[in-house]
Amino acid sequence: MSGPKKTRWEIRQERLEALRRERARKRACQVREIEEELRDLEKRLAGLQRVCGESARRVVGHVERWLQEIREGLNDDLRDAWRGLKGVRNYLERQEPRLRERAERDLRRRQRQARADRRLEAVRNRLERLGDELGAGGEGLLQLPMTWLEEAETRHGGNPGELERQLAGIERYLEERSQRIGELKREAAQRGVARRLQEELAAIGEECRSLASPGIEQRIQWFSRELDERPADESLRRQVETFRRQVNRLLEQQEQARAELTLVGEALSNALGARPDEEEDGSLVVQGEIGGVPIRARLRSDGHEIHLDTPEDGSCHRAIDALSRHLAEGGVSLGPVRVLNTGETIGNRSRLAERKSIDA
Question: What are phi and psi of 306, to 5 degrees?
Fold first, then answer.
């Protein structure tokens, strides 16, 4: 009975079924693990795409197709799926650092370009403000940096370093001439004050047409010429200010005289029952009657004079008395009325506590 032996083994059917169920369970677990790996890799790809942008498009597209093939092969041998996942991970381990480094370089370049663009905008605004502040006096000083700015805008070729070097040259040019720029600003400010005074003088000329004063017009023309020649002369500015106050007083007096003339005209209009008419020289004429006596009254603001035309039949005494009473009710008192042809005075001046006294 000694020596080699040989036999056969056989697994019972129930044990084979148990083994198949166990293998199916392990396969289902592996499928879930593979699907989880696929989801993680898809999230990784999305992050890579978000960070690296267009530069990652080729790699992301290649990996997405690879993952799709792995997913489609989950019904086959899972060893191929695991090999595919390992290949994807190895591929990304090689590609991702390169892509992220390129993305960081692009980000730094964009940030530097953005800084250069902001600096370009700041230099442009600075030159434009200086141009506005200095006016014609700064054209010579700003011509060169404006030319440099145009070249910087058109010739840097997307190179932020070159653009920043050109802008630094413009800023250095302006800093070296800061003292001269300050002088030009002061001169421009003085010219601005002179122009403002000239505009005010022109407006005064428009307002003073009613004064019909050649002297005022001549002074306005003289001041305007002198302000062109001596914009920084403080004494000249004080003279202009004094002149302006004098004109304002004249205009105020004219407005007051006009208001008084209008008041007296309304009082005469009420007394004579007629509307006042204004003549070219500013006088008011009221022609009507009082107590049946026709009267034509002409008023002038200068001297507070009233010229009266009345009948020569002796009725003027009665008419003037009635007129004096009506005017007194309107706040105006008549002084003695002198007959121009004879020098005779009609009536006595009455002192009334009214608003205004008029010498007729």
Answer: -125, 125
HSE of 201, CA atoms in CB hemisphere, 13 A: 25
341: which DSSP letter?
T
**Full domain range(s) for residue 70:** 17-106
Beta strands 305-309 and 332-334, pairing class: unpaired
Q: Structure tokens of 104?
A: 């960081």
End position of a domain, from candidates 70, 90, 106 = 106
77 in any annotated domain:
yes
Number of domains the chain contains = 3
Say yes or no: 280 and 316 in one domain: yes
Length of the chain counted residue by residue: 360
Q: Which whole number is the average pLDDT over 119-127?
A: 90
Q: What are phi and psi of 5, to 5 degrees?
A: -130, 170
For 334-357, how does the pLDDT look when each residue is reduced to its tens digit (9 = 90+)? 777 767 666 666 654 443 333 333
Q: Are strands 332-334 and 337-338 parallel, antiparallel or unpaired?
A: unpaired
Task: Check if the beta carbon of residue 58 is closer than 8 Å to that of residue 32.
Answer: no
The DSSP bridge partners found for residue 312 are none
Residue 63: C-alpha distances to residues 43, 46, 121 (Å): 12, 11, 43
* Residue 339 belongs to some domain of the structure: yes
- What is the chain's mean pLDDT, rounded? 81
DSSP state of 336: P
Residue 310: closest CA among 330, 290, 327: 290
CA atoms of 136 and 188, how far apart (whole Å): 9
Closest CA to 126 of 167, 186, 183: 167
